[in-house]
Amino acid sequence: MAEAEAHRYKNQVVVITGGASGIGYGILKTFVEHGAKVVFCDIKEKDGLSAEASLNEMGPGQCKYIFCDVSNENQIKFVIDTAVETYGQLDCLINNAGTHPPHLPIDRFSAADFHQIMDINVFSFFSACKFALPHLRKTQGNIINNCSLVADIGQHHAVTYVSSKGAILSMTKALAIDEACHNVRVNSFSPSNIFTPMWEKAALASPDYDAAIKTGRDSQVLGRFGTLEEVGLVCLFLAADATFCTGININVSGGAELDYGKKSRLDSE
Length: 269
Hints:
The protein is an alpha/beta fold. The protein is 49% helix and 14% strand. The chain has 10 helices and 7 strands. A 7-stranded parallel sheet has the order 3-2-1-4-5-6-7, with helices on both faces. It is globular. The protein starts with a helix and ends in a 17-residue tail after the last strand. Keywords: Oxidoreductase. InterPro entries: NAD(P)-bd_dom_sf, Sc_DH/Rdtase_CS, SDR_fam.
């Protein structure tokens, strides 16, 4: 691999929320491998410190971990400010932090439950964008939002989660319009079943691990889970290469949204 290809985001400064594990870690690893200077935050301090140590040893880029509860806008502001103070600029914000509650019908959720998921999945994106944009306008940088395939196709017993991801899809398009005058691009990506530690934990907690894995795998027409590396490369494309793309959403889905299937709910609750 040529050096230019190996270091596609060399010395660019990136902030990633929720970067200590799962999809966020896959994105973080990809950007460090391609030479970026990354400040990432997460509520999982042990995982964050471990990722910081291992990725800095690996290089060629570098990263700095900050503990952050993304529902707290002052803590998000601190993350953005730290990135700019440490590296002198900001080129890319990747809003990745999020949560998925248990699958339940809407009347099993309280108003407080709904507020909590919106605080994490939507308000944190709003806050990070608000604090990052004054810096991104100077560098003509970009924002990448982690949406979800279910924002388009829905999901059984997941009204609160789907609502939060639908908001991110709309926010991405609206912000892309507003920031075009500053040459700041705003895009999103929508994963389907990516094999993360969270996915495996859910499968282990199910009555039949093998059946759960098969269901997740078979939801994609490609017949497999996506990988963390594949999601990271999509984000790298949006940041480094997709310079004439704004307001778009890329499905990282293995074709999960394609074709007919048994979808009747008449025999289920």
